[in-house]
Amino acid sequence: MAFSPRQPERPTDDGDAAAELDALMRSARSAGGLTPGDEARLLQRAGLGDRASQDRLVAAHLERVVRLAATRGEQGMSVSDLVQEGSIGLLEAVRTYAESGESDFAQFAEARIAAQMDAAIAAEAAAVREGELLVAAATDYERAELVMKRELHRDPTAAELAEKLEWTVDRTLYVASVVADARRRYDEEMLALIDPEAIDLDDDDDEPGDLDG
Prior knowledge:
Strand content: under 5%
Structural class: mainly alpha
Distance between the termini: 46 Å
Order of helices and strands: HHHHHHHH
């Protein structure tokens, strides 16, 4: 049984990624822009909680989100996921700009969008790294368990494995539960591949007459 670390998301094909980006950009541009006066009025209303104003401002500045996502598309997350994260940052900028004291909404929004995307990328990278470390720990656990079974001629206890691995007992028990769960899922996957109709429970070769000399 093999453990697989969580892998960062990558577009399966450069053409698909380009098509996705083009579709996102066309969708973003479809909302149209705003005049400075309209934008200022909408920002005031958005700051007071007006949902329609917030939605209109997000739509008007979505192209900025797509552009920033495109520059980060090779950092472990897909462009579409980054657009979702950036949209959260944009909405936060729309809601808080009126009370921020800032004078340039475009700059304010871009900073919020970028911060949201960068935080998401960092979280994804941390999750991948955590997964890789867990895979390594699970592999070490299985090796130690196998060696100790041979040495002791029985299943080792958690305390014995912890001493062997130089881990705490709590860490050993946690990794043991991960390994047990992975084994269970592996067994279920193998069973799912078996076609019950293909299993012959009767041994056709052992006819009653064959048992007589």
